[in-house]
Amino acid sequence: MAIPSWVQFLVLALLAPILLLSGRAAQLLRLPLITGYVLAGIILGPYGLTILDSNSLQTLTAVDNGCLAIIAFSAGAELQLGDVRRIKKQVTYITLGICLATWLAISGLMLSLASVLPMTAALPSKHRAAVASLAGTLMMARSPASMMAVLKETDGRGPFASLIMAVVIVKDVVVFICFAINIEMADAVIKRAESGFSLTSLVEPMYSVFVSVVLGILYGISIGRVMATPSRYFNVILRHLPQGLSNRTKGAARTAALAVLAMSIFWTATQLHAEPLLACVLAGIITINRQGEAASKALHEELGQTLAELTPLVNMAFFSLAGASLILGRVVATLWVALILWLVRVAAIYGGSWLGSWLGGTPPEYRLRIWQGMITQAGVAMGLAKAVAVRFPDWGPDFVFLMMSVIMMNLFSGPPIFRSAIISAGEARALQLPTIFNDVKSPTKAQAGPPESDDLHDHPISDHRNDSIR
């Protein structure tokens, strides 16, 4: 007898305290919070206690999609164009350098290994190229969540920290756009290989991207208005409540409205056969940039507080379900490939960030540190990997297991390396810890600024240190 859907949603809600404790336990062990959620999901999943079995995971796909919608929207909402414009040359070159180097290195490696990987060995060459391109795009992603967590822990402030923040946020948006185009093109290539050339297979990717852009603009304008101007009737109700209760009610209403609107973007895009993640990230960009710069900063602060209230629920649900969906046997079988991918990705990030820094005129002392802030992956990468599994059920699940192995390596290795970079750059105000790679000379005050033509301010990106969810 099938378990009703509402029971499975209730089970997930009842598991929330256990998941919360697992996250806290991970923190006590000096591990990222989301690592605890992933491990708890593995224990509670089909290969552990089976509280979350395969049928439950299928039913809870709606929860996954809702979390992805909020993750993508919040990534876009971090991109304040007015702030990035001040250091646009450095950000542009570093972002392009890292993205191109990573995509070329990972795609090339995946193509060279295609004949020995079980998921691609039997695929035609065009299919292999699509898989390799998607892997390269996914490995471009970086986790703003872990970046914010390290900066919050160290109270990292200064030119280097600000440059890292700008590059990570811009690169996140670039990754979403590239992934949306990539997955549509991969779908078209595979369909064309199976059924031959047709006008539909050529038009579908363009249609999907176009509809996603339109949805992102429309929803971005709507969400901006909802966040900035609550309805007249709602204000009348608030005036009759005590001040403290009124503020809490107002905050809760905005949080609920934002969550519903973000999830409705995902649902609408899916129904229209558009790319939901691209629509969500564009909605975030439009929401935060549709007004003047001063109003944009105020809205960014308010949006940050609202998203921070959603963070615990989104983190627990998304990462625990990600852990429960892992098939451990397949993950272990792909560890050797994952290790090679991890090493090649780190090398590509190092080379791409150095080249981009050199072309952009970034100070030499920063060129040897930029890569240390670009390693960690988490929610964004996991979300994109799971989207591939949904779109391509034949080889997608195996693709997810391989990518999840690499993502977990990046999740464990990235934060301590970035923390070391902040400390050795002399920008960790809260603590002084032993550093890794401390052979790089710390910049002096005279060296700290970049060229006069591209001024790097102490805080070019908003310093709102909420616990981001990416």
UniProtKB/TrEMBL annotation:
Recorded topology in the membrane: Multi-pass membrane protein
Main location: membrane
GO molecular function, one term: antiporter activity
Pfam families (alphabetical): Na_H_Exchanger (PF00999)
Regions of compositional bias (Basic and acidic residues) in chain numbering: 454-470
TM stretches of this protein: 35-52, 93-117, 129-151, 163-186, 206-228, 310-329, 335-356, 395-412
Biological process according to GO: proton transmembrane transport
Top-rank taxon: Eukaryota
GO cellular component: membrane
Domain Cation/H+ exchanger transmembrane: 13-411
Keywords linked to the UniProt accession: Membrane, Transmembrane, Transmembrane helix
Keyword Transmembrane belongs to the record: yes
Stored PANTHER family: CATION_H+ EXCHANGER DOMAIN-CONTAINING PROTEIN (PTHR43021:SF2), NA(+)/H(+) ANTIPORTER-RELATED (PTHR43021)
Protein's name in the database: Cation/H+ exchanger transmembrane domain-containing protein
